[in-house]
Amino acid sequence: MNAGSGATPLATSPLNSVESARPHLPVLLREVLVALAPRDGEVYVDGTFGAGGYSRAVLQAAGSLVGVDRDPEALIAAADLEAEFPGRFKFLQGCFGDLDALLEDNNVTEIHGVMLDLGVSSMQLDQAERGFSFMRDGPLDMRMSQSGVSASDVVNGYDEQDLATILYVYGEERRSRAIAKAIVTKREQAPITRTFDLVELVTSVLGHPRGKKKGAHPATRTFQALRIFLNNELGELIRGLMAAEKCLAPGGRLVVVTFHSLEDRIVKKFLTARTGQGGRPSRYMPDVETQAPSFESQGKRSVSPSDEEVSTNSRSRSARLRSAVRTTAAPWPEDDLLPRNAPQLEVLS
After folding, report:
1. Of 46, 147, 26, 132, nearest to 88 (Cα)?
2. What secondary structure, in 3-state letters, does 225-238 show?
3. DSSP H helical segments within the chain, as ranges?
4. What pLDDT, on the 0 to 100 scale, is given for residue 210?
5. Are 115 and 81 in contact (CB under 8 A)?
6. Cα 183 to Cα 163: distance, rounded to the nearest angstrom
């Protein structure tokens, strides 16, 4: 690996929660490895390192790898991989949206594959004190970087209209206005600071699911919306896709695993355009110069987990994998891939 010495030192302290020691199950792992096709002498990037499940599998197959993550907890798994694969693994702490700058700053060149496993990780969900899960009581936090504004700050600090917009756009929550109104009423009595406080409030608005097919938990969309907004996940995804486009060598593979429709729409729109499948202008319009495709399609447009995987790992049920191969064409200009109704809000300082 052509990499400098500017990587973040690796931590060796234990995880804060016993629950976080449970094994991490990388979703669509077999399919990710097929799409990435690791080879000796190549360098790969795991832009969402997390607990290191994908990275370990790639390193066991072939090549060298750079792991990137903004969560300080990732340093622990990174230390294990550094010891297990000396000289073949490097960890860089930061956002994958800054992938191109991180690699350049550390003299990492000639990238042959980029993996992105989006959303919240099992490592984060399983620690109650991180506040990501509506199934565990803990502080209403949800910060992937463990710094800055928390979900509690957003819930207690934004006005009713802004909260409703966040829930509707990022959670696709149809009862967003009712939930936002209930949040404002509740916080006038006392701040909402615990995950179960928010779960109880949302459930009081939406009710408990009934019947044999109960479906998703009523708080799912609210928690998703707050997490995505707080961590600017869609903005990071867009920046990450464009950074991968800049970094990948010709023939390099981009592999992205999404877990909900907002993410998948962005990835689909990006790859549809970059592979030249975005449709042609009307034949009545003047001829315009088109950008050469920067990616080629690879296999099926999207891959879903098998029934067997879903039965053993329920968190995989909504996963979708999309992949493409980098061409020799120049990177495209930056695109605005955010949803049209995305709120133009600043995170509280």
Report:
1. 46
2. HHHHHHCCHHHHHH
3. 29-36, 53-61, 74-84, 99-105, 122-125, 151-157, 160-171, 176-189, 195-206, 220-230, 233-247, 261-274, 307-312
4. 60
5. no
6. 9
- Encoding tokens for residue 130? 């991180």
* CA dist., res. 250 & res. 240, Å (int): 18
Name the phi and psi angles at 42, rounded to 5. Answer: -105, 160
pTM as predicted? 0.85
Whether the CB-CB separation of 148 and 349 falls below 8 Å is answered with no
pLDDT at res. 18: 30
**Per DSSP, what are the bridge partners of residue 326?**
295
In three-state secondary structure terms, 46 is strand
- pLDDT one-digit tens code per residue, 232-268: 999 999 999 999 999 999 999 999 999 989 999 999 9
Q: How far is CA 291 from CA 77, 238, 275, 282, in A?
A: 41, 19, 10, 17
Length of the chain: 349
- Which are the contacts of 12, defined by CB distance < 8 A and separation ≥ 6? 76, 79
Apex CA 149: angle with CA 145 and CA 154, to 5°? 130
Position 24 scores a pLDDT of: 60
Domains detected in the chain: 18-122+240-326 (3.40.50.150), 146-230 (1.10.150.170)
CA distance 274 to 334: 12
